[in-house]
Amino acid sequence: MPLSRLNEEQYNAATSDFKYNLIIASAGTGKTSTIVGRIAHLLSKGIEPSEILLLTFTNKAAAEMVERLAQFFGDEIAQKIDAGTFHAVSYRWLKKYDKKIVLKQQRELKTLFRSVFEKRSFQNIDAEVQPYGGNYLYDMYSFYQNTELENNFEDWIKDSFAEHELFALIYADVVDEFETLKKEYGFVNFNDLLLHFRELCSHYDLGYKEILIDEYQDTNALQGTLVDAMNPPSLFCVGDYDQSIYAFNGADITIIGSFNKKFPDAVVHTLTKNYRSSPPILSLATKVIEHNERIYPKQLEVTRQGSFPPPKLLGYEELFEQYHAIAMKIRESQTPHEEIAVIFRNNSTADGIEVGLRELDIACKRKGGTSFFDSKEVKAVLDIFTLLVNEADMMSFIHVFEYARGIGSAMAKELYLGLKFSGAGSMLTGLYAPDEHIRNPFEKRKLNHQLGLFDEFLELGAVGKFAKLGFEDKFMKNPVLKHPKLTKDSATFLHNFYLLFRDIKGMSEPKAVVKKIYTSEVFKYIADILSSKRAQLKDGTIDEKQKTESLVKIQRKMMLLEELSSPYKEHSRFLNAMILGSSDLTQGEGVNLLSVHASKGLEYKEVYVIDMMDGRFPNRKLMQRGGSLDEERRLFYVAVTRAKDILYLSYTKYDKMKKMNFIASQFLYEAGMVPKDEAYRALIQKEQDKKDEEN
Fold first, then answer.
1. Element (H, E) at 24
2. Cis status, amide bond into 264, omega within 30 of 0
3. Cα separation of 537 and 625, whole Å?
4. What whole-number distance in Å separates Cα of residue 410 and Cα of residue 228?
5. In this structure, which CATH number among 3.40.50.300, 1.10.10.10, 3.20.20.150, 3.40.50.720 belongs to the domain 2-98+194-271?
6. Residue 579's pLDDT is what?
7. pLDDT for res 100
8. What values do phi and psi take at 120, rounded to 5?
9. This prediction's pTM
10. Among 92, 68, 93, CA closest to 78
11. Greatest CA separation for the chain
12. Residue 70's pLDDT band (boundaries 50, 70, 90)?
């Protein structure tokens, strides 16, 4: 039985007679076993399975616990336990009372929200800042719903973002109309599920005898009020304040921190026996996390016996050297690749590791952030390379030309077909040696009034408008320039594409082609668009510093891609390896590449926590945008406690791309892996000055 497998602390928690129980379950202390044991205890006391509600943060976690219960009590009993995420449980209940509700995905409701937002005009408002865009306002409204319990949306905007006070009434009106439309059509989103279910709970007794909540430290204000509305006779909450890492998503650590104040007769149980990590790993994690304020006292005990290697610090001179060296170390490791994890704080950090493993033909799977091969800048280069290998790939042409200002997918297709028509079936021939007898590659299409199709091309554009742009004479004779919607910007993009392919069509080395592509005017234009979009602030302006940093990241990806192309001598083999091979190497089995957030709840025999430099981990930029050093420290704690036997922490001294020197992460100093020096004392002084300024 589940209870017989518990240690004394777990057993006491699982069989508690108190109405309100908080179980502080640190990493590796067996929280799942305790929850399963608690449910087994409730069943043994005669409580019906349907009178038990288990709330988890993923449906997978709920399914795993129910599956474990089924091993002891059978499927029939286990399946009657109400288990799932806050949203899944809410949806099931609401469907019982209102079968007409229609759950819509965020992207669909964002479109509806924008349709309301775009009817508003902000032109007559004299303000120093630009109003928020529709998408950003939707996200802000969602955050408001999850975190604000008192103010209405208009007042919340005024209090939280004083510089937008002049727009607050319009924002609130957009929200009101949006809510009216949703109600009219029966649409609900994830937030609505919780809000409507909370209302339902205030009118009906759901019949639960106990509610169990997993990952309690990650609950937000809305979820907290939902639990209050359910008002269960008994509450069993399991969590760890040292693993609260979702503040950016609205999680409120004060909910777990104030549990025994909210319920004065509550009992707090602490699970102290760690079954996962080796003594040296646990010692390092504890040393660092103890720099955070202790909400509830706890002292972890190591249960694993035997000889284990101490955590090792890997130091490198240069950033790229770190990535290649770790990939080599993984290749030489005796640990099965599926039992190895590389954990990163920043998505860009993982690109180097992913490429390093790819060069050594080591399979990997990436979770958290965008894969190197899926990034838009890498895809753009590979689309251009694809056209060199296979000019008949119209979709690659469309993908590239969609970046050009004034050209959408429909027009890109028209240009491709126009070039192909002018080149007797060859796009490249149409670009460099079009048929001189073809005066109009965009022949009028047949009208079909029944289908609502009408000819958009009333007359050909005049090529003369491009006369002063400095295009080559030969290019100026191309009939494709007569496309009526071609602007000076889009024609310039086409001319730069023409110049690029003139240079690369005779190149035989993939490496030379890659470099020529990413140094071309075409790619510079694409990189500028991508970096501008990534540096766009909520008021619509561009943060130039952030844009420069984004361009550096794009440049780093290009250098990695160039390195990947070095061993190849044939264009088609390189392209196949990048497009087909990348898919094989980032799915299924292999080394696990994980963001810290994605690693939570997982464990591996061998773990590498990389880029342990101040500024990267802790991430000082995110701290300035509402994060905190305490949360960064909790992230570090989560990362290192994923390791069972072997832990490596790595850092580097220099970034040749940014020409930047690094100092070791504050956490390496706190762990005692780097001797405390002047650099550390400067960090501490800076933190103290910041606190003094805030106070």
1. strand 20-25
2. no
3. 12
4. 53
5. 3.40.50.300
6. 67
7. 66
8. -85, 150
9. 0.76
10. 68
11. 92
12. confident
